[in-house]
Amino acid sequence: MRALVTTAPGGWEQTRLSDVVLRDGRPEDVLVKVHAVGLNPADHFQIEGRYPGGPKPPFVPGRDASGIVIQGDAAGHWQPGDVVVVLQSSTTDLVNGTLCEQQWFAAENLARKPEEWSHSEAAAAPLVFLTAWKALVDIGGLKPGQNVVITGASGGVGLAAVQLASAYGATVVGLSRSDDKRPGLLEAGAHHVFSPDNPHLKEQICDALRAKGVPLVVDNVGGPSLTTAVHLLGIHGRVSVVGVLAGIEAVIPIPALMFKRASIHGVLVTDDSPGRAQTAWQEIVELMDRARLRPKIDSRFPLESVAKAFEKLRTNVLGKVIVEIPA
Ligand SMILES: NC(=O)c1ccc[n+]([C@@H]2O[C@H](COP(=O)([O-])OP(=O)(O)OC[C@H]3O[C@@H](n4cnc5c(N)ncnc54)[C@H](OP(=O)(O)O)[C@@H]3O)[C@@H](O)[C@H]2O)c1
Questions:
Q1: Ligand 1: which residue has its CA nearest to atom 44?
Q2: Is the CB of 182 under 6 A from ligand 1?
Q3: Superfamily grouping for domain 2-125+295-324
Q4: CA–CA separation, 1 vs 302, rounded Å?
Q5: pLDDT, tens digit, for every residue of 87-111?
Q6: What is the architecture, at CATH level 2, of domain 127-269?
């Protein structure tokens, strides 16, 4: 069986596609033939040893996948032929990841693939959509009709948040540094798209929304973006902190926080029990299907070109980079 394996610390130097013997599964595991894997920056950080709490080599990277059950679990939750997607939860196995031809996954971390979605669309979704849902609804408390600002809106989590928030009935402001991603973000459901670098960003957003501040900012970028997020809030507003791409430290304007009675909340997708992740996934799929939306794919690569797929992930993509592993 072929798998991408990081054999020792040292990043890509120590990571290659290899023939490996499949490990034994536990009674609660299900053997899945993987058909598609959605890449995330987290996979790259794990390979480079830069992921806090990440796996120690040797490990197979990859978190998201869609595939077909070859052998079910002992309790019979899953049967051969079931078409499944791998969800993220507190019991996600970071050592035995998805970038391989076959893998054993805990039965509790599998859900049925949405029927109308292709394997690639399904593999594009779990990590980013579960994170976006948590940031918007579970932690952000978003209500239909409210305004939300999403930073890093063109990224995996950002685009998922734009789609989910607009399907949820929110008015969505997406922030992106690149003008060429603007049409794609508007098409995905953003009502307004602005550059985070505009010195008059707050006035621009408040004018567009005819509001003095926003109830929720989903911050995928971190660093100075978190400072901006607090300034954008209205009274009792909250920030859902998702990512740290622009820095792991931020200046917090305490008077703004205090006078607005605002709050800042961390989001961690693997905080959820498998049961909660299943419930969130069902809500996500129903919402996406009702709005006739699908996870957006930027590009697809065969397993043999997995290194090229990771190179692509580091460029200016809009949508997910998928590794496909046909039968
Ligand atoms: N907390 C959790 O549970 C959780 C779960 C998933 C992901 N994450 C983290 O969330 C972050 C976003 O993930 P993702 O998958 O959406 O990443 P991504 O696909 O790489 O996209 C992030 C977007 O942010 C913008 N960006 C990138 N670097 C930036 C910088 N230095 N300054 C300002 N903007 C920047 C880019 O948009 P423009 O170029 O258009 O501006 C990019 O499209 C990552 O840090 C990831 O590790 C956290």
A1: 243
A2: no
A3: Medium-chain alcohol dehydrogenases, catalytic domain (3.90.180.10)
A4: 15
A5: 999 999 999 999 999 999 999 999 9
A6: 3-Layer(aba) Sandwich (3.40)
